[in-house]
Design brief:
Layout: E1 2-6, E2 9-16, E3 21-25, H1 39-42, E4 47-51, H2 69-83, E5 88-93, H3 95-106, E6 111-117, H4 131-134, H5 145-156, H6 163-175, H7 180-191, E7 206-211, H8 220-228, E8 233-237, H9 244-247, H10 249-269
Parallel strand pairs: 3-4, 3-5, 5-6, 6-7, 7-8
Antiparallel strand pairs: 1-2, 2-4
Helix pairs in contact: 2-3
Length: 270
């Protein structure tokens, strides 16, 4: 069991595989265990580094009422230090994509490539889901964990995704479900964050992936990110929603592999 220290945060991390380092950053209210579908596909070629964001999994921090995106971005740098990696490819999903953006802005020299999945730029420029969907993120008090997941299901999984896939995801999420205080600390950390004005500063190969059926973070957000980041490549997946790595894991892994191999080949040639 490995931990990286960043101030009062003791960040749990792990790695599997060999090759160029690839950090995967998970979304709101989820531990790194939710990468279980992608890791077996990626660790054949890369050293996949996973970490639990503040308030999730085995990461330990006390007393914080808000887990700020900037702090979680610095946590990524601390994990890279602990893993002995000067630089890495970084990919983030949803809130993890926001952390990844902030990491790219705060630690640009440590980034080989950036992949943003089902995420947005935050602030007033983000395209929000309809109110009845958005409020589900804030109104979990009084609901069981199972009920909260079931309410989000129509907005986060593609229509064609098999029920067994969703149930498997829910088993993993329920086994690592956060306390209400930890969930809210992450959620409140997102409210005052925005990357919109700073996105043109990102200067590395960027892949933006978004599910066309995403009902939680609408696809227009992916298009906006790709427009704001010079040279970013946009991939929209028609048979995927917010949890695109569960809806279409092979496609998502293939796009990541293509980007990373291209960047690594360019590094060798130079």
């Amino acid at each position: 069991m490995a931990f990286a220290q960043n101030g009062r945060a003791c960040v749990h991390w792990s790695s599997v595989g060999k090759g160029p380092p690839l950090v995967l950053l998970m979304g709101l209210g989820c531990s790194s265990a939710m990468w279980f579908r992608l890791v077996p596909l990626l660790c054949r070629q890369f050293r996949v580094i996973l970490l639990d964001n503040r308030g999730m999994g085995q990461t330990q921090i006390s007393g914080n009422l808000v887990h700020r995106v900037t702090d979680m971005a610095h946590d990524v740098a601390a994990v890279l230090d602990a893993a002995g990696c000067g630089t890495a490819h970084v990919a983030g999903l949803s809130m993890g994509g926001m952390i990844a953006q902030e990491f790219a802005l705060l630690h640009p020299k440590r980034l080989r490539s950036l992949t943003l999945m089902a995420t947005n730029c935050g602030g007033s420029n983000a395209v929000l889901a309809p109110y009845e969907v958005w409020r589900l993120l804030f109104n979990k008090g009084g609901k069981t964990a199972e009920a909260a997941l079931d309410l989000m299901r129509p907005h986060t999984y593609a229509k064609g995704t098999h029920e067994s896939v969703i149930e498997e995801d829910h088993v993993v999420r329920l086994a690592n479900f956060p306390a209400k205080r930890d969930y809210e600390a992450q959620l409140y950390g997102l409210l005052g964050w925005s990357s919109y004005n700073r996105l043109p500063q990102i200067d590395c190969p960027v892949l933006v992936m978004h599910g066309q059926q995403d009902g939680l973070i609408p696809p227009a957000n992916g298009r906006l990110l790709a427009q704001r980041i010079t040279g970013a490549r946009l991939v929209e997946i028609d048979q995927a929603s917010h949890w695109l790595h569960s809806d279409q894991p092979v496609r998502v892994a293939s796009e990541l592999q293509e980007l990373i191999q291209r960047v690594e080949n360019l590094c060798v040639q130079s």
